[in-house]
Write a structure and sequence with these properties.
alpha/beta, 23% strand, 171 residues, globular
Length: 171
């Protein structure tokens, strides 16, 4: 089992696995915690970062905000997957929005989830593959959560620092 120091460390470890992707690919962070992973990957790969905001209710996971992705290679990132509901919703949303290629890249994906997720996207990139779903906290020395407000702040700060157009950031 791989243990990450924190969410940023997970992004640092993911970055080399994505280094060969075209630089015009877009990282789509599943908010809020995915933004910390995405920004660390972007620092090394120079890819744009966008965000997928989700809500959970009785009918499942819904994507409420997503930047334009038509014609782009999209890399969906988060701090990991437990059950896969959020990842599935975001993969389906970016496909419906016209992404040319969809890759899921996560530090942790249970083997059972990876199997069906591979059927929904073009590629799955993962570091740690536990046999069964379990809390992501098992894989991190410090698993401090990021709330929506902090996630939006990090996204806006990165957009400002890098001079990204608002097309990378949902309204």
């Amino acid at each position: 089992m791989t243990t990450f120091m924190n969410i940023a460390d997970a992004g640092d470890q993911m970055a080399p696995l994505l280094a060969d992707l075209p630089t015009d690919s877009m990282l789509i962070a599943i908010m809020p915690s995915g933004i910390a992973v995405a920004c660390r990957i972007a620092k090394r790969t120079r890819m744009d970062v966008g965000a997928a905001f989700i809500t959970r209710d009785d009918s499942g996971v819904q994507v409420t905000e997503l930047p334009p992705v038509e014609g782009r290679t999209v890399v969906v990132v988060d701090d990991g997957i437990e059950t896969g509901g959020a990842a599935r919703a975001v993969v389906e949303a970016v496909r419906a929005a016209g992404a040319a290629r969809v890759i899921v890249a996560m530090p942790v994906i249970p083997q059972s989830v990876e199997a069906w997720l591979a059927l929904l996207c073009d590629e799955v990139i993962v570091i740690d593959r536990p046999l069964a779903p379990r809390s992501l906290a098992w894989h991190y020395e410090d698993f401090s959560p990021i709330d929506d407000e902090m996630g939006r702040f990090i996204l806006a700060r990165q957009a400002w620092k890098r001079g990204w157009t608002t097309k990378c950031v949902p309204e």
